[in-house]
Amino acid sequence: MAVYIRERSPGSRGRFILRWGLVGLAGLLLIGGAVWVLRGLRQRSEGTSIATLAPLPQDPLIQVFFNQSQAAYYTEPYRVVERSGDDLEQVIIAAIRSADVSVDVAVQELRLPGIAAALRERHQAGVRVRVILENTYRRPLSAITPQEIAAMEERDRLRYADSVQIIDRNQDGQQSPEEIAENDALVVLQNAGIPILDDRADGSAGSGLMHHKFVVVDDRLVILGSANFTASDIHGDFLRPDSRGNANHLLRISSPAVAQVFTQEFALMWGDG
Predict the structure, then answer these.
(1) What's the whole-model pTM score?
(2) Domains identified in the chain and CATH numbers
């Protein structure tokens, strides 16, 4: 569009330029808005209403994932909500499912049944699976008694109330034997016969420092990061539907040399290093 500016008095010329400048700015805003709307419509046609940024390229050997990423979205499997971010649990599950020989897991807390089910499947397929936990989180959620719950501080009681929602899948306020067997992650591991140690295995009262969060697969692949394997650290809190979890990340490193370092650390804690 051509804009012709005629000779006018200094005052009127300024007003004329300002007027057309504002018209041009409004036009740019309209064009930008249209592009944004069309982009949103394109994303909706592709199956999501969540706007995402273009993802950065990933190295094939070292990859990074963020559960608050604006370049990805997924449907969370437990609350069944569509949300932005990388599905950190699926990154862990995919790594476990790729195992042919061994899976070693060292994590402070493990409560996600999807990860437990993947470990069970590999164990049943003949893969060696071992798990190390921090002693405070060694007991299944379903084993905690009403008396113990009543004695908890309010913060811990609220945390427990949120955590058990992942077991009570039909949300009837009860944990049935079937729900416990399939959704209490530590019960899943125990029933499968997967060996589990915690930081009291040396006969001590526990260090209180077992804060590892890593998985080693076949001495070739390492998953590590800041997230415990819990709903609140990866997906979000059940009792807060708008929650999207603590901001956390994972690294996926394909390197036998790096895997050897983590295997040595695991062996030291397991007692055969």
Answers:
(1) 0.81
(2) 1-47 (no CATH), 62-270 (3.30.870.10)
